[in-house]
Amino acid sequence: MQDIEAVRAALRAQRIETPSWAYGNSGTRFKVFAQEGVPRDPYEKIADAARVHALTGVAPLVSLHIPWDRVDDYAHLAAHARDYGVRIGAINANVFQDDAYRLGSVTNPDARVRRKAVHHLLACVDVLDATGSRDLKLWFADGTNYPGQGDIATRQAYLAEALAEVYARLSADQRILLEYKLFEPAFYMTDVPDWGTAYAHCLELGPQAVVCVDTGHHAPGTNIEFIVAFLLSRGRLGAFDFNSRFYADDDLMVGAADPFQLFRIMHEVVRGGGLDPAAGVNFMLDQCHNIEPKIPAQIRSVANVQEATAKALLVDAEELAAAQQAGDVLAANAVLMDAYATDVRPLLRELREEQGLAPDPVAAYHASGYAERIRAERVGGTQAGWGA
Ligand SMILES: [Mn+2]
To answer: How close is the Cα of 214 to the center of ligand 1, in Å?
Structure first.
C-alpha cells in the first residue's frame, strides 16, 4: 500500500511553470486568431499567469520569451510578478525571428550572424541576472532544408563554440536548458534533433547544462519515458516542456492526446526521484492555445499534470519491484495499470479545498468574472502574440 500522506505531500509540493506566450495570441503558419482580452504586454501576461496560480495553487512561476517579453527594466518586471504572487521562471532565448537567421543562428555559415546570435544569448543571461531566474532555455531553429546545403559537422562545431561561450557567462546558480526537436522549421537536417545530441553537448559543457524534454518534439512512437529515465539517472534532466501532439509539434494541452503517455513519463519521474526539488527538474508547460480560451486551457493543463503525477505517485513501488524481480510480467504490468485506472480527481479536489481553493479551478475561473473584466479593460493597444 502507498502512504497516502506522502502522496498528498508530494502533490502539495509540486510546482508547474506556465509560459508567458500561452496567454498571448498564437496560431499556425496559416492563421493567428485574435482573442478579446489578450494581454498587450508582459505585465498583463504575468497578471494572467498569476490568476492561474491563484486558482490552482501550484503554478507560481512564469517563463518569459525574449524578445517577445522585452521590457526596459527586468528587475521592475520581476517585482511586478512578486506583487502578483508569482516569480519569473525560465528565460527562453529567441534566435529564430530575425531575417539574419534565414540560414541559422549559432550555426550560420556567416561568422557575423553567429556573433549576433551569441550576443543575444548573452543578453538573455543578463535577464537571468536581473530577474533572479535560474534557467536559460535554448532552442535553436537551426538546420538545413536540403542535402548539401550545410556541413553537418562544421555546424556542430559552431554550436559547441556558441554554447561554451554562453556557459562560461553563467553564474554558479544558473543553468542552460538545452532543448531538442526532431524537425521543423528545418526539414532535412536539424542541428539539435534529439536528446542524444543535447545530452552530448551538455556533457561537454559541464554540470550546469541540462536537457529540456519537450514532449511534442519526438517522432511518433518514441518512448519518451525511456529518455526521461535515462537523463534523470544521469542528473541531466533539467526540465520538461509539457504539451501534447497528434502529428508533429502540435503544442496542444498536455495530456490531451495521450494521458497514458503522460502517466508513464511521470512514473519514471517519481521512480527516479525527479519530484524532489533537489533533482532540479523544472516542470514547465510549452503550449499555444490557438482556438481555445487561454487561461482556462492553462488551468486545465496544470490539472492534467497534477492528475498524471497523482496516478504515478499511487504506483505501489514495492509491489512493482517484487513482481519485476519475480519475472511476473502480468503482475508488474497490473501494478502500473491499477494506478493509472485510479480516479484521482476526488483526491485533487480535496487537496485544493484544504488549501482554501475551489475544488474545480476551471469552474472557479468562469465564475470569477476575470474573463469579462480583461475583455472590458484590455481595449486598445497591440495584443501580444507571435512576433510581438
Ligand atoms: Mn518547447
So the answer is: 5
pLDDT by residue (tens digit) across 117-172? 999 999 999 999 999 999 999 999 999 999 999 999 999 999 999 999 999 999 99
Instruction: For residue range 10-19, list pLDDT tens digits in order.
Output: 999 999 999 9
The fraction of the chain above a pLDDT of 70, given in percent, is 99
Rounded to two decimals, what is the model's pTM? 0.97
Neighbours of ion ligand 1 (CB under 5 A): 214, 241, 286
Ligand 1 geometric centre to CA of 345 (Å): 28
Residue 63 CA to residue 92 CA, distance in Å, equals 7
Question: What is the domain partition of the chain in residue ranges?
Answer: 4-377
> Distance between CA 309 and CA 11 in Å, rounded?
7
Q: What is the pLDDT of residues 226-269, one digit of tens each?
A: 999 999 999 999 999 999 999 999 999 999 999 999 999 999 99
Ligand 1 midpoint to CA 252 (Å): 12
Separation of CA 259 and ligand 1 centre (Å): 18
Given CATH 3.20.20.150, say whether it is the number of domain 4-377.
yes
